[in-house]
Design a protein that fits this description.
Helix 1 packs parallel to helix 9, helix 3 crosses helix 8 and helix 4 runs antiparallel to helix 8. The protein has a seven-stranded mixed β-sheet with strand order 13-14-15-12-11-16-17, with helices on both faces. Strands 8-7-6-9-10 form a five-stranded parallel β-sheet, with helices on both faces. Strands 1-3-2 form a three-stranded mixed β-sheet. It is built from 16 helices and 18 strands. The chain is of the alpha/beta class and 481 residues long. Helices cover 39% and strands 20% of the residues. It starts with a strand and ends in an 8-residue tail after the last helix.
Length: 481
């Protein structure tokens, strides 16, 4: 099957295309992406910047409505773009069709009208700051001004992820160019195509394209045109991007993070233990731990009716149950080798501590490792490999977490209300930026502070009219004569 993806505003030039080929379970798919030269990228960026004034003429309420209509269209499973996404994303990503279907619906609901309003209010107490000058409490007036051009370098580890930063860019009334990942070039393309069908006036304000990562000529050309560059990916690739971005261009990098869970003994009685294990397993299987918010370890407290080792075995049973419903995607040879190496290392550790255990046969599509003493938080090999680490007191975990301070992101917790706020203070001191319920680690709420930052505020500049200017202007008003 051949599918045309991407979106480029008309620049009156013939564009080359590049074919990205995907094969999965006997199905073959060719995605035709527009491939621009450095000169064509500059023309596209100039066209979008010149039309950013049109975007800024929309009220923020109008933009919320346009995005809401686009999302509503994608939530309709009879919509052609939604049908194409459901049909093709399993071939592109290898993820189970049902996981794609439920995952898209859950994710898209984050961008309905009420949730977009939450985005805006979270960053701007008064979203009208994006439309006009608004009075400040300290006197004077301020307005939030989005850049003319935001360039997004997107990762493809989780389907649909690019629209988070794209929608943020639209809400601050900026022109946007997005570079999709070779591993998932489709969804952002479909979203922009649907958006422009709903509001054709935006056709010259957006672009979705692809080029081979590391193409210095194209990246430098585009980055010199950009006011803001938002980058997702591995830390090494982001560091490489940083060297190509001019000093005057704002760079917002989102690199690899480590997330984990904390499970209280209070959640491990005979009634609650299975539900806790079920929620933890869901966080592991959803997109096979490819998101930064996916857990790579669970810290399980001793003292409950269910011991941490028993919980590890329960978690294994839940992962096996999920495997029957949402099979793990096919892995590359490199991924398979990484899992084998990780298992081998953990099996070796069982010789030094007989309490340690590796749960799950090599033939299984999941592995749970139980660790009795060592509290170190270290990356798993992903793809449904997880470590369960026993502990006694919350405070004993903090020194181990602080070692990973710059990489910490989400903590999924199963705690009592009293434990929640006590533990949250400890986790925040260690570097955690998001605390959520177990079972919800892979579904951030609308308006969350991504890696402790702002979705919208980081994109804009503020313009202030000081009260002195207002008072002085009164001297020249016609009514003063």
């Amino acid at each position: 099957m051949d599918v045309i993806a991407g979106y480029i505003p008309n620049i009156d030039e013939e564009l080359d295309t590049h074919i990205l080929t995907f094969e999965n379970k006997g199905e073959k798919l060719n995605i035709h992406m527009p491939l621009l030269t450095a000169e064509q990228l500059i023309k596209v960026s100039e066209k979008i910047k010149n039309n950013s004034g049109l975007l800024k003429s929309f009220s923020v309420i109008e933009l919320v409505s346009i995005i809401d209509q686009t999302v509503a269209a994608f939530l309709d499973r009879s919509n052609p773009y939604r049908k194409k996404a459901e049909e093709l994303l399993p071939v592109i990503t290898g993820y189970d069709k049902e996981m794609i279907r439920t995952g898209l619906t859950s994710y898209l609901k984050t961008f309905r009208k009420q949730e977009l309003q939450r985005f805006l209010v979270e960053d701007f107490q008064n979203p009208l700051l994006l439309d006009d000058f608004q009075p400040r409490t300290k006197t004077g007036y301020s307005k939030a001004v989005g850049p003319d051009l935001i360039t997004h370098i997107w990762a493809g580890n989780v389907p649909g992820l690019p629209i988070w930063s794209l929608i943020s860019g639209i809400l601050v009334k900026s022109g946007n160019i997005g570079k999709v990942s070779r591993s998932e070039p489709l969804f952002a393309s479909l979203f922009v195509q649907q958006l422009i069908e709903i509001e054709p006036r935006l056709k010259d304000c957006l672009a979705v394209c692809w080029w081979r990562g590391g193409d210095e000529e194209k990246e430098k050309a585009l980055f010199h045109q950009s006011d803001v560059v938002v980058g997702y990916g591995g830390n090494e690739s982001l560091e490489s991007l940083r060297t190509k971005i001019p000093f005057s261009t704002r760079f917002l990098p989102y690199g690899h993070k480590i997330s984990f869970g904390i499970i209280s003994s209070s959640s491990l009685d005979s009634n609650k233990g299975e539900k806790t294990a079920h929620a933890a397993a869901y966080d592991v299987i959803r997109y096979d731990q490819q998101g930064c918010y996916s857990p790579q370890a669970f810290y399980v407290q001793r003292g409950g009716n269910i011991t941490p080792k028993q919980f590890a075995r329960m978690l294994g049973r839940e992962l096996e149950s999920y495997e029957n419903r949402y099979p793990r995607r096919s892995l590359s040879l490199e991924e398979t080798a990484n899992i084998a190496s990780w298992r081998q290392k953990e099996e070796f550790h069982t010789f030094s501590n007989q309490e340690n255990e590796v749960i799950g046969e090599t033939s299984h599509n999941w592995t749970v490792v139980y660790e009795d003493e060592n509290k170190e938080l270290s990356p798993s090999s992903l793809n449904r490999t997880i470590k369960v680490i026993a502990f006694d007191e919350y405070s004993e975990l903090i020194p181990y977490l602080r070692k990973n301070r710059s990489f910490l992101q989400t903590a999924g917790v199963a705690l009592t209300p009293e434990e929640l706020f006590h533990t949250a203070k400890l986790l925040s001191s260690a570097g955690v930026t998001r605390i959520t319920a177990l079972g919800h680690m892979t579904s951030p709420e609308a308006g969350w502070h991504h890696d402790g930052r702002f979705n919208l505020l980081d994109l804009v500049n503020f313009v202030d009219i000081e009260n002195y200017a207002k008072e002085y202007s009164e001297n020249f008003a016609p009514y003063t004569d």
